[in-house]
TrEMBL record:
Any single Pfam family the record assigns to this protein: Ion_trans
GO MF assignments: voltage-gated potassium channel activity
Cellular location(s): Membrane
Protein's UniProt name: Ion transport domain-containing protein
Principal location listed in the UniProt entry: membrane
Signal peptide span: none
Source organism per UniProt: Prymnesium polylepis
Segments passing through the bilayer: 12-32, 155-173, 193-214, 226-244
Superkingdom, taxonomy of origin: Eukaryota
Length: 245
């Protein structure tokens, strides 16, 4: 109970607070480590290993003292978050050990796997969701999102449909005419068209329909501008209608 219920005793509350503080500290390490001035100032590898070992031991101890079935422990959302957070570290340690006995040809592939696993270390950020469990405001937000799931599903479907339609339309309007000399499709302004394919236009459709408008890709043809205007207006309506419902 001490490990699973902070309200069980003072020691349980203290232990829980220490774990939460460690979670925040581990996320802070990710942020600080990205600063050039601190990138090589500390032994981040050793600190990360220490943090992961503490998380791993805490997870295994909670598993050992769990009173219910092991299956119920593993499928609990909070325990799944912990497992996702520590699993990349465990796999990385195994791969690092394997690299010691690998041949020169295999080390190239193992090194690539290590790079992916280091990126996967960012999964420790999901442990921040454990903090949300203790915040009543975030509980209200989560409950509201759950109750609004039908409207959210409708919103996602309508947005996906509209993005696909307007991506196809803007591609046809802005793809330009093929030029053998430039080896590209040129628009009426003489510049190569950035709308090189329908999948490439998805970015433009999302930015336009959400009214963000970065301006990195813009239509220049009259028909393309008309499609853009329709996409903007449709985006406003698609986003507003499910919210009002």
């Amino acid at each position: 109970m001490t490990l699973n219920d902070p309200s069980y005793s003072n020691s349980a509350a203290t232990l829980h607070s220490a774990v939460m503080l460690l979670i925040v500290s581990s996320v802070g390490m990710i942020v600080v480590q990205s600063l050039p001035a601190y990138e090589h100032a500390l032994n981040w590898g050793q600190l990360n290993t220490t943090v992961y070992l503490i998380f791993t031991v805490e997870y295994l101890v909670r598993l050992a003292v769990h009173e219910g079935s092991r299956c119920a422990f593993f499928v609990d959302p909070m325990n799944l978050i912990d497992l996702v957070a520590i699993l990349p570290f465990l796999v990385e340690e195994f791969v690092t050990l394997e690299m010691l006995f690998a041949t020169d040809d295999d080390k190239h592939y193992v090194a690539g796997s290590l790079r992916l696993l280091r990126i996967a270390r960012l999964f420790r950020l999901v442990r921040l969701l454990k903090l949300a469990k203790q915040m009543s405001v975030l509980k209200v937000v989560a409950e509201t999102m759950f109750r609004s799931r039908d409207a959210m599903n409708t919103l996602c479907f309508m947005m996906l449909l509209a993005i696909t339609i307007f991506s196809c339309l803007i591609y046809e309007a802005e793809r330009g005419v093929w030029s053998d000399e430039a080896q590209a499709r040129l628009r009426s302004d003489g510049e190569p068209s950035p709308f090189t394919s329908i999948p490439h236009t998805f970015w433009w459709a999302v930015v336009t329909m959400t009214t963000v408008g970065y301006g990195d890709i813009c239509p220049v043809e009259p028909l393309g501008k008309l499609v853009a205007c329709c996409a903007m207006m449709t985006g406003i309506l698609v986003l507003a209608l499910p919210i009002s419902v």
